[in-house]
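testing teh design pipeline on a random one, pls ignore if ur not involved
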């Protein structure tokens, strides 16, 4: 596996592959890699001839300085894991390489989908995400980029970014990779104390219960969301939000909407965990819609 720390080094490798007619995939990460990240790399290998993995802890997407300072940096461990799964190039630039002026003076705002949930809870977060992803696409010029569906809202932001700015990049989403007990894999799981780790799967279990209730015919979404929040609080979590949304754009669902998703963010100790569960309500397009799902007004 090759390594590059500069944009010039990255482009030299990609240009050589292009001259050979190869298809290039990019997997953007912030490092501290786990099996979920490695699954993204495996999927990228299926979609392209060469795979670039970036490791860059992007300061623009952190809303709290203490969170940025505490984020684990494990570059050599990450490099060994990437080499083992067949990544072709590790791009690990310094902050000055990505933001030579000491911070991006040009920033990208994706409106609409960023106004709710994570965007509301973490002001400026998605501006940082959109800006660094746009820069990485320009640096690596991939044919395809692979992202995890655990960060569902981020995936929608990136799809919107690509569509609106005409990036010639195919965006591939990969379903969330979980532990055997249901906990979504996350670099932040390392913040959990042993006792908290035992309770952490309750977040996913709560989402499953909410979805089962909707599929069973319950239609009062605000009540179900409130019950889910209360259940998490009793389990020792501090929920930021639990929300049922339309999967395609995170709008509140209407009576005819069937492709939905429930998303949640909650603190457990010093770890802020996020998760989601996409689901489909019964019925085929063209059927008479079920009674309207009740929403708060």
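output:
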């Amino acid at each position: 596996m090759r390594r590059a720390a500069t944009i010039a080094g990255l482009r030299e490798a990609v240009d050589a592959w292009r001259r050979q007619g190869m298809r290039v995939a990019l997997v953007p990460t912030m490092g501290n890699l786990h099996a979920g990240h490695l699954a993204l790399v495996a999927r990228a290998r299926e979609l392209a001839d060469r795979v670039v993995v970036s490791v860059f802890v992007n300061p623009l997407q952190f809303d709290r300085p203490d969170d940025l300072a505490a984020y684990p940096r494990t570059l050599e461990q990450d490099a060994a894991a990437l080499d083992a799964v067949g990544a072709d190039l590790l791009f690990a630039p310094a902050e000055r390489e990505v933001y030579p002026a000491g911070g991006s003076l040009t920033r990208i705002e994706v409106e609409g989908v960023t106004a709710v949930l994570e965007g509301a809870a973490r002001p400026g977060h998605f501006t940082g995400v959109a800006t660094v992803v746009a820069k990485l696409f320009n640096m690596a010029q991939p044919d395809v980029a692979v992202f995890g569906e655990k960060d569902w809202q981020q995936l929608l932001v990136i799809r919107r970014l690509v569509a609106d700015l005409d990036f010639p990049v195919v965006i591939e989403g990969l379903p969330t990779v979980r532990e055997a007990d249901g906990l979504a894999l996350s670099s932040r799981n390392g913040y959990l104390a042993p006792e908290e780790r035992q309770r952490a799967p309750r977040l996913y279990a709560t989402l499953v219960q909410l979805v089962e209730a909707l599929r069973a015919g319950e239609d009062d979404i605000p009540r179900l969301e409130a019950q889910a929040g209360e259940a998490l609080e009793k389990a020792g979590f501090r929920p930021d939000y639990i929300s049922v949304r339309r999967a395609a754009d995170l709008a509140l669902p209407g009576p005819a909407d069937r492709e939905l998703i429930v998303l949640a963010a909650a603190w457990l100790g010093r770890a802020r965990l996020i998760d989601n569960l996409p689901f489909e309500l019964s019925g085929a397009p063209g059927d008479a819609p079920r009674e309207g799902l009740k929403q708060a007004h």
